[in-house]
TrEMBL record:
This is Peptide methionine sulfoxide reductase MsrA. The active site is at C54. NCBIfam families: msrA. It comes from the Bacteria. It comes from Streptomyces xantholiticus. It catalyses: [thioredoxin]-disulfide + L-methionine + H2O = L-methionine (S)-S-oxide + [thioredoxin]-dithiol; L-methionyl-[protein] + [thioredoxin]-disulfide + H2O = L-methionyl-(S)-S-oxide-[protein] + [thioredoxin]-dithiol. Keywords: Oxidoreductase. Residues 48-202 form the Peptide methionine sulphoxide reductase MsrA domain. Coiled coil: none annotated. It holds the Pfam family PMSR. The keyword Oxidoreductase applies.
Length: 223
């Protein structure tokens, strides 16, 4: 079932058990932005988690955005603790290939990041993204506040309307709380992969349909 032509998410009982601690170390700093990869982060910053296919190209989309303080790639949304890349690619962890984006909301709004997220991939493809097939390539937004959840769902609904008008199907993106869905950083060689390997593989590609959501300053955490 898990290795057939049609990918299927494992149940918690089927998933690999993982390990209590990571089996590898993560670099201290971002190779492009120069800031720390792992928290705690400065208090004025916010965190957003996105999955939109192969995380190599997805991460680059975000680190190129003004107002983004750091990015890192990892595994999220599944069951296996501290998975390896090979385990995630087996389909037996339930995780997505995710990008954590730490940003300054006074410079770039969460809505702007959502617009970049939607336009950088095809969110209607289920367990695949282009030629990359597997449950780890599914589209997802893991939210860190009620405001993020509301913005993500509103943007999904707005984008669905224009996608439908352009002949695309139903958006399959998961929108779920990050709480209870830990982000497990990936191995060192995956972090900023396309900075280290400029000619490396990038499977990220959008639909060409613009997402009609605002780019105004995001509401404050107290709003």
């Amino acid at each position: 079932m898990l290795f057939g032509r049609t990918p299927v998410l494992p149940t918690p009982e089927q998933a690999l058990k993982g390990r209590p601690d990571p089996s590898f170390t993560v670099p201290d700093r971002h190779t492009v932005l120069g800031n720390p990869l792992l928290g705690p982060y400065p208090e004025h910053l916010e965190t957003a988690d996105f999955a939109l296919g192969c995380f190599w190209g997805a991460e680059r989309k975000f680190w190129q955005t003004q107002g983004v303080w750091t990015t890192l790639v990892g595994y999220q949304g599944g069951y296996t603790e501290n998975p390896t890349y090979e385990e995630a690619c087996s389909g037996l962890t339930g995780h997505t290939e995710a990008v954590r984006v730490v940003f300054d909301p006074s410079v770039v709004s969460y809505e702007s990041l959502l617009k970049l997220f939607w336009e950088s991939h095809n969110p209607t493809q289920g367990f695949r993204q282009g030629n990359d097939v597997g449950t780890q390539y599914r589209s997802a937004v893991y939210t860190h506040s009620p405001a993020q959840a509301a913005a993500a769902k509103s943007s999904r609904d707005a984008y669905q309307k224009v996608l439908t008008g352009s002949g695309y199907g139903t958006i399959t993106t998961e929108i779920l709380p990050a709480d209870g869905r830990p982000f497990y950083p990936a191995e060192a060689y995956h972090q900023q992969y396309l900075d280290k390997n400029p000619a490396g593989y990038c499977g990220i590609g959008g639909t060409g349909v613009s997402c009609p959501i605002g780019v105004a300053k995001a509401p404050s955490a107290d709003a």
